[in-house]
Every structure is written in C-alpha cells, then in structure tokens.
Design goal:
- Belongs to the histone deacetylase family. HD type 2 subfamily.
- InterPro entries: HDACs, His_deacetylse_dom, His_deacetylse_dom_sf, Ureohydrolase_dom_sf, Znf_RanBP2.
- This protein is α/β, with parallel strands linked by helices.
- Helices cover 38% and strands 9% of the residues.
- It contains 20 helices and 14 strands.
- The strands form three sheets. It has an eight-stranded parallel sheet with strand order 6-5-9-14-13-10-11-12, sandwiched between helices.
- It starts with a strand and ends in a 6-residue tail after the last helix.
- The relative contact order is 0.10.
Length: 661
C-alpha cells in the first residue's frame, strides 16, 4: 500500500523488503540501478565537474518501502496541520529564549504573527512537496556544509543523459552535439496512422513480422522535479520508432498489433496480488517511487499493463502461427520485476507474462535469452523452479558488484528447475562482440538445441552498447581523454579500441540471427534496457532487419574470445555440463586449449619484461618513469600544441631537456 513520502532531510525509511528474500537480490540492489557503473561506488568523475551521483538520483530524498512512496492527497490536511503545530512548538521555544520565560507552555509566550498563513504556504512553491514542507524561516546553511558542491553550470546530453560542463559543445561520453533533438518521430506517427491494426480477419503471409507499440507508453515518465534527467525516458521509444521509419521498416513492412491492457488474472500468474495493487494505485498519485530510481506517475500503471498486454498477444500470435516473429517496442522494461517487487525501472515482468501466454497458446517449452547488461533477477526468480522455461542470461557481474548483484554462474535454479537457469557473468565491462558470440557458440546454442523450445523470447536490452551511461561497457571516454591529453598516444588508443569495446549493432544482429535457428524461427524480441538513443535505435533496427529476413549473412567460423571471456565461459561450462551433457565435449576441448591460450598471454608478458631488463628497445614509456609519463601526458603535450600554434615550437624543443626519473 502506498505511504506518504517523508520530507526532504527527514529520516529515510529502510530498504524495501518485499520480494528481496526470495529474489536473491544482493545489497548492491539497494544502491539503485543508476549508481552501479563507471566506478566502485558508482560515482564517475568528470573534469571540471565535481561528480555525478547516481545519474538522476542526486539530491533526492528517496524512500524505499514495500509499496509506493508518494504524496497522498487524502493526508494533505493532516500534514498542513502538522506543519502548523510544529511551527507553533518552535515559536514557543524561540520566544522563551528571548524573553527569559521559563514556562514554554504559557499561551502568552506564543506570537500569533509568527504562525505561517495557509495562503503563504500555498504560494511557496508549485509542488505538493513545497506545500507541505516549506518553511520561510529555514536558513540556507549549505555554504558551510563540508559536503556542499561548487555550483557548476552544466547541460545534459539528450542522447545519453550524461552531464557536461557548459564550456564544451559536445558530450564527453558519446560526442553528441549540444542541443541535439530526436528527429523523425513525426514521420513515424504519420505513417503509423495509415496502417490498419492486425485483427482476426487480417490475412498475413506466413513469414510476417508483427510489432507492438502504443503511444500511451510515452506518458510514463519521471515528473520533472529534479535537474538530472532519468535515463529511462520516453525518447527511447521515439528514437527507435524514428529509426525504423527512416529505414523503411515500420510500419510499411510489419503488422501492427492492436494494444490492450493485460488483465489482473494474467498478471496473477506472475506477480502477487500485493504487487499488482501497489502498481495499480499509482494512477491516483502525482508521482511515486518503488525504489530510489524506479518511478511511477499517474499514467505508469496503464503503460505497464499495455506493455505486458502487447508482449502477451505477440507471443500468442507467434505460437499460433499467425505471424512468424515479433518485436515488442515497449516500456517500462520488465526483467528486474520479481514476484513481489518492482525495481530497476521495471514494474511488470513483460518477458514472464509473454512466456506464460505462449504456454497458454500451446507452447510446452519456452526459451528466454536475456542479453541486457544487467542480470534479469526478476525473470530468474519467477522461473527458477520451473523446468518448462529455460532462462539464459549474459550480463556484467563483477563478482556481484554490478547491479543488481545477482546472476552468478552457480545460480542454476531450484528444485525441479535445477539446470534451467544458466548465467554467463562477465567479470568486467568492455565485453564486446567476440566474447558474446563465443558464449553463444559454446554455451547458449548447444543448450538451446538440447532443450528444443517451441518459442524463443529475447529480453533485448541494448545497454551493453556504445556510450550507454549505465552499462559503461565502452572505453571511448577514456580513450578520448588519452588522445586529447597526449596526442602521441593516439596509436595506443586506437589499438585499445580494437581490443576492448562494447557490443555493436552488428553483434546484436548476429546474436539474433543465431537464435532464429531455435524453435523453427518463432522468435519474440522484447525491449528491455538501453539508454543511449543512437545506440539503441541502430541496434534495434538491425535486430528487426534480421526478423524480416533482411539481415547480414554472417560466417559460422569460431570466434576468438578475450582472456577474461574465456575464463567466464569455462567457469559456466564447468558448472552447467553436469546438467547438460551436450556441453561436455566443448568443455574438454576448451580445457585442453586453455593452457596454450593463457601461456600465449604469459609468454608475451615475460618477453617484454626480459627485453626491458636487458635494455633492449621497447615501448617509449620504458624510457621514463611513471611520474614523468604522467607529466608528459597532462602538461607537456598541451604545451607543445599551444606553442606550435604560435610558430615557436622549434625554439622550445631546442631548450627543453627530458630528464629520466
């Protein structure tokens, strides 16, 4: 049930407990999804700016309870009376001090003029928070607080929501120009208005692709009471729709599924009644929060039911054979929503609703592949004891330090569902196409073939892509700084880009193509995360092209993984081959190759150390100590470029002596 939101500066309620015991969410989940990237404490630093704390949760008095935190209009009168009585009590004490009155309970000590008038409170601010908790006598003491930050003018990138100092004109994370906008959505709306909705009488070719979308899902947004934009925002769907329209894909080449809200009975098969009621009652509130970063407004309950309803209908259409495959362009996302908990921007679990709808339509076995960079703890919790639904997740884990902290390789399911939860937990960020394809070839596809599903559902989060503010799987920002601060390291930066990188649109396209072989091409792609507009729009477009049969043809040769990627896959194979004997040969082969692969890395490292010890020619950084290298990178490179612009570089280079530290 909803409870009233505490005033800013008040004592915070304890962490939400409903569903935590069952879902296995670690303590990391309590920090919020936005605070778990780019650093140990989730607070990436930027040059010229103090810090970015949790992207959009900075400065918010957050409360996490079993239901929803909100201002409830039913308690407005009580709260105003409480403000008055509190003010009255404070006035008693203040006057007692000034007049040396020892009896603070005397009515004569109360100055009636100091009481706040109701009209003054109403004019204090435009939000309910200002109405209830405004105090004109409250002093602003931020100037002496040790934790106060310097006021820095900044702007937020529309493409990735990254904060940037006002002096620069492009985003330091994704290089998007300041003032960019989402273009092309109006064209999409015009075309969509001319498309007839799919009905029972509609005749479709057997290889058609259906798409689920409704504009009412754009009404789900965080109320703008904070300066920092929320990464899960309506522009995500607008960008994807505009990209599909520009590519001539949707709605011209796809069938449009009529939207409907999921019924309570259908939701009861996935979530508890308490959870359903908690989400439903948000429609009566101005704004509310399930966790620090999982928001809702008066339209969120409708949007969540539309998203779940579209996913359920798409799954039924695919299983029945009316369409071959489909793409659910929906929000809010769902794979973090557990049996009794909304979290991680997710309200209802769309993939779980779709899986059970597919089984009601005749599917006996359902495969869910989740490639979102965050582990789908909610989906795993819902099906961890169900052997008719196989859940495979590839995600960034870092030994439980990455949100939500679940999804270790040893989490294999419970009871009859043991072995039907397969987690491939990456040990670091920056895992790219090669590692994902390698995991597909050696883990995902062999298990899927053995399982033989009747339909495959992809929880398609695109937050492992380039420039994502939460996935942080891109070293582009670091390499940009290297190239800017130290131009002669440009070649090194370019080499690092080739070795370490995020998942590309081509990578997502290839994974989708590989999964089309499962379940005879019956494939449903459901949008989950992904918060860089350019990355998610281009990636989603490539995925839909595969569904239409227009995707690129990829070779089937083996892919070479990174050292860390190979370690992760071997760890998974060691655990899962006892449940899936088909993995035995691959595990034995990779174990035999492991020594030679790791010895190659070790041999290269030893050769470099030996050359350095013997004084042989090597990389330039051997000629200077680490302090000197840092000085050269930070100051010398910029100084030389500045002098070069004035035509005095020759004179300076003659008078400069490089001292080896």
């Amino acid at each position: 049930m909803a409870s009233d939101m505490n005033p800013h500066g008040g004592k915070k309620a304890s962490m939400a407990s409903h569903g935590l015991e069952n879902s296995g969410v670690s303590d990391q989940a309590s920090h919020g999804k936005c605070q778990c990237c780019c650093g140990g404490d989730g607070t990436p630093s930027l040059p010229g700016n103090s810090s970015l704390v949790g992207s959009h949760t900075e400065g918010k008095s957050s409360i996490e309870i079993c239901g929803v935190c909100s201002f409830d209009s039913d308690h407005a009168d009580d709260l105003v009376e409480e403000v008055r009585s509190s003010k009255s009590r404070s006035s008693h004490v203040e006057i007692a001090d000034n007049n040396s009155c020892l009896d603070v309970k005397k009515e004569s000590c109360l100055a009636a003029d100091n009481l706040p008038q109701e009209s003054e409170i109403e004019q204090a601010g435009g939000t309910l928070e200002d109405l209830f908790f405004f105090s004109e006598d409250e002093e602003d003491d931020s100037d002496w607080e040790p934790t106060s930050r310097l006021a820095v003018n900044r702007w937020f990138c529309l493409n990735c929501t990254w904060p940037n100092i006002d002096e620069i004109t492009f985003c330091m994370n994704c290089h998007e120009l300041k003032g960019s906008d989402v273009a092309g959505y109006d064209l999409f709306k015009t075309q969509m208005a001319q498309v007839a909705l799919l009905s029972a009488e509609t005749e479709l070719p057997p290889a058609s692709t259906a798409i689920g979308f409704d504009e009412r899902m754009l009404l789900h947004r965080e109320i703008e009471i904070k300066p920092n934009p929320h990464p899960e925002r309506p522009d995500r769907l607008r960008a994807i729709a505009a990209s599909l329209a520009a590519a001539g894909i949707f709605p011209s080449k796809c069938a449009l599924v009529p939207p409907r809200e999921i019924t309570k009975e259908e939701l009861m098969m996935v979530h508890t009644p308490n959870h359903i009621v908690s989400v439903e009652q948000t429609k009566n509130m101005l704004y509310s929060y399930f966790t620090a970063d999982t928001y809702a407004n008066e339209h969120s309950a409708c949007a969540a039911k539309l998203a779940a309803g579209l996913c359920a209908d798409l799954a039924s259409l695919i299983v029945s054979g009316r369409v071959r495959n489909g793409f659910a362009m929906v929000r809010p996302p769902g794979h973090h929503a557990g049996v009794n908990q909304a979290m991680g921007f997710c309200l209802h679990n769309n993939a779980a609703v779709a899986a059970l709808a597919a089984q009601r339509a005749g599917a006996k076995k359902v495969l869910i592949v989740d490639w979102d960079v965050h582990h789908g703890n909610g989906t795993q919790e819902i099906f961890e004891g169900n052997k008719s639904v196989l859940y495979i997740s590839l995600h960034r884990h870092e030994d439980g330090k990455f949100y939500p902290g679940t999804g270790a390789a040893h989490e294999v399911g419970t009871l009859d569902g043991k072995g039907f939860s397969v987690n491939i937990p990456w040990s670091r960020g920056g895992v790219g196409d090669n590692d994902y394809i390698f995991a597909f070839q050696n883990v995902v596809l062999p298990i899927a073939a053995e399982f033989a599903p009747d339909i495959t559902i992809i929880s398609a989060g695109f937050d492992a892509a380039r420039g994502d503010p939460l996935g942080c799987c891109d070293v582009r920002f670091l390499l940009f700084l290297i190239a800017e601060l130290c131009p002669y390291l440009h070649n090194v930066a370019s080499a690092m880009k080739r070795m370490i990188g995020p998942v590309t649109p081509a990578g997502y396209s290839r994974m989708t193509s590989m999964l089309t072989a499962c379940s005879e091409g019956k494939l449903l792609v459901i949008l989950e995360g992904g918060y860089n507009l350019r990355s998610i729009s281009s990636s989603a477009t490539e995925v839909v092209k595969v569904l239409l049969g227009d995707g690129t043809n990829f070779d089937t040769c083996a892919t070479a993984p990174s050292k860390d990627g190979l370690k992760t896959v071997l760890q998974v194979l060691k655990i899962q081959h006892q449940f899936w004997p088909v993995l035995g040969p691959a595990y034995a082969l990779l174990q035999a190759q492991q020594g030679s692969v790791f010895s190659k890395y070790t041999k290269k490292g030893n050769e470099l150390k030996k050359k350095k010890h013997l004084g042989a020619p090597g990389p330039f950084w051997w000629k200077m100590g680490s302090k000197r290298l840092l000085y050269e990178a930070l100051f010398k490179g910029r100084r030389l470029r500045k002098i070069k612009a004035t035509g005095k570089e020759k004179l300076i280079q003659q008078n400069t002596k490089y001292v080896i530290c």
